[in-house]
Specification:
It is built from 11 helices and 11 strands. The protein has 302 residues and is α/β, with parallel strands linked by helices. The strands form 2 sheets. Strands 3, 4, 5, 6, 7, 8, 9, 10 and 11 form a 9-stranded mixed sheet that branches.
C-alpha cells in the first residue's frame, strides 16, 4: 500500500472530510474538482475500500474513511514537522493547530496568541472550537496539536497539563435577581436555564448545582455563543452559568447581576496532548508559553 500513497492524497482526503464536499474541497485546495476526485479514487484503490458515501448534497465518510482519518492527520503532521525541522532557526515558523471552547478563546486565549505572534510573527494559528468532548476527539484523533478543556478527561491516551482554576458564576437580569433575593431560589423553578447545550461541561455543572439546591427549572435554552447567552440574560430570557471572567465587564457596567447561588464554583482548565503525538517546534514553544503565563499569573496572585 505504501508505494501507492502520496502526501497530497492525504491533504485532499482531509479537505474533503472537513468540507464534506468534493467541490468545496477543490476550492479550498485550489484544484479542479476532477483532481480531488482522482486523489480520493487513488486512495480508495490503495486502501481497497470505499472512503466516502456520495450523498445528494456532499459526502459522508464510511467506516473505513473514519479509520483512515486518524492516519491521514498523522501523515500530514509528520510531513509538516519534518519540513519545519529542516528549516528550523532562531525564528520559528509553521502552523499551530488548537482546539478549545469558544468562550475560553475569547476570554483567555486570544490575548496570549496575540502576544506570542508579536514575538514570533512567522508562526500561524489554526483554531477549532467545540465543547468538552469535541476537543477531546480532536486531540485523540490527531486533528490538532493540542486542546484546552475545562477538566482532566482522565484518559490514558491523553496527557493533561493543568493551567488555571476558572471561577463560574450564575448570572441573571436585575429583575430576576431581585425576585430571588426577595422570594428565594424557588423563583428559578419558573425560569429557563440558558447554556451552550447538553454537550457543554458548564451545562452539566449548572444542572448539578441546581439539583443540589432543589431548583427545577421550567426548561433549557441553547445558544451558540457566550455573547448571545449574555444578551439573552440581560433581556430577561433566563439565567446562566458562565465563567466569571466572561461577565466582568457587564457586571461592572450593570447589564446584569450575579445570582445568590452557591459560590466557589471552579473548573480546572488544562492543555491536553495526545501522548503519541510529537509536537512540532512552534507548538512546543507555545505550549510552554501558555503554561508559563498561567504559572506566573498564579504566583503573582499568591
Amino acid at each position: 500500500m505504501i508505494d501507492l500513497l502520496e502526501g497530497r492524497f492525504f491533504k485532499t482526503f482531509i479537505a474533503v472530510m472537513e468540507e464534506k464536499s468534493f467541490n468545496r474541497a477543490s476550492e479550498k485546495l485550489g484544484y479542479v474538482q476532477s483532481t480531488v476526485t482522482n486523489h480520493i479514487q487513488l486512495l480508495e484503490r490503495a486502501c481497497g475500500q470505499k472512503l466516502f458515501y456520495r450523498l445528494s448534497r456532499g459526502v459522508k465518510p464510511t467506516e473505513a474513511g473514519l479509520k483512515l482519518a486518524k492516519f491521514a492527520h498523522q501523515f500530514v503532521h509528520l510531513g509538516l514537522t519534518l519540513e519545519e525541522a529542516m528549516n528550523e532557526s532562531n525564528q520559528p515558523r509553521g502552523t499551530i493547530h488548537l482546539s478549545m471552547h469558544e468562550s475560553f478563546f475569547v476570554t483567555r486565549m486570544a490575548s496570549l496568541i496575540e502576544k506570542f505572534r508579536f514575538d514570533y510573527p512567522m508562526v500561524k494559528f489554526k483554531l477549532e472550537t467545540g465543547y468538552h468532548q469535541d476537543v477531546i476527539d480532536d486531540v485523540s484523533q490527531y486533528v490538532v496539536d493540542f486542546g484546552i478543556v475545562p477538566r482532566d478527561p482522565g484518559r490514558e491516551d491523553l496527557i493533561f497539563y493543568p493551567m488555571l482554576q476558572e471561577e463560574l458564576i450564575f448570572i441573571a437580569s436585575h429583575e430576576l435577581t431581585e425576585k430571588v433575593e426577595t422570594d428565594g431560589l424557588i423563583v428559578l423553578n419558573h425560569e429557563a436555564a440558558i447554556s451552550f447545550g447538553n454537550s457543554c461541561l458548564y451545562h452539566t455543572h449548572a444542572n448539578m448545582i441546581l439539583e443540589e439546591t432543589g431548583v427545577e427549572t421550567s426548561g433549557a435554552i441553547q445558544y451558540p455563543s457566550i455573547e448571545m447567552i449574555k444578551k439573552a440574560v440581560k433581556c430577561g430570557i433566563g439565567f446562566a452559568l458562565i465563567p466569571k471572567i466572561a461577565a466582568e465587564k457587564e457586571l461592572e457596567e450593570g447589564d446584569f447581576q450575579s445570582l445568590p447561588l452557591p459560590t466557589g464554583i471552579f473548573s480546572t482548565h488544562g492543555i491536553i496532548v495526545n501522548k503519541d503525538r510529537e509536537l512540532n517546534f512552534p507548538a512546543q514553544m507555545f505550549k510552554s508559553f501558555v503554561l508559563d503565563s498561567y504559572s506566573n499569573e498564579t504566583n503573582h496572585d499568591a
